[in-house]
Amino acid sequence: MRRGCHWINMRDLGRCFKMKCNDAQENNIAKGGYPTEFIKGARRCDSGGKKNPMLEPMICEALRIVSSFDLNAVQSFMNRITDRILEKGKRMGFGVQPGPRCGHMIGLRPISKEMVEYLTPETMVEVANRLKEKNIFLAV
User: Fold this and answer.
1) What are phi and psi of 33, to 5 degrees?
2) In angstroms, rounded to a whole number, what is the distance separating the alpha carbons of residues 70 and 62?
């Protein structure tokens, strides 16, 4: 871990939130980031999931639809969008992971000392919450 950076796994739904266990329907981020306390026992491994037999036919239909897509065209479309985000990020002082990547995911990392000091976990949570209101989702 780099000094001044705190990586938080947004997929870790086995944590306790405000004296209650996380529900997969909630994804609220507190000011200081995710809590460090985990759910006790095997519930920690269920990722907040609940049994729901109605989901199976929906998942099957979703997979049928997705499998009909031309994935090369989807990646090309997504790359056009995310390439612009990466270029703007570079101009703002972020480092970009070199090499091939999938079109729907990008990684930006603060590289200047000033940017690292400014982007505290609390600030990143605030940024993530503001972007979430615009249906843009970050893993911070």
Assistant:
1) 95, -165
2) 15
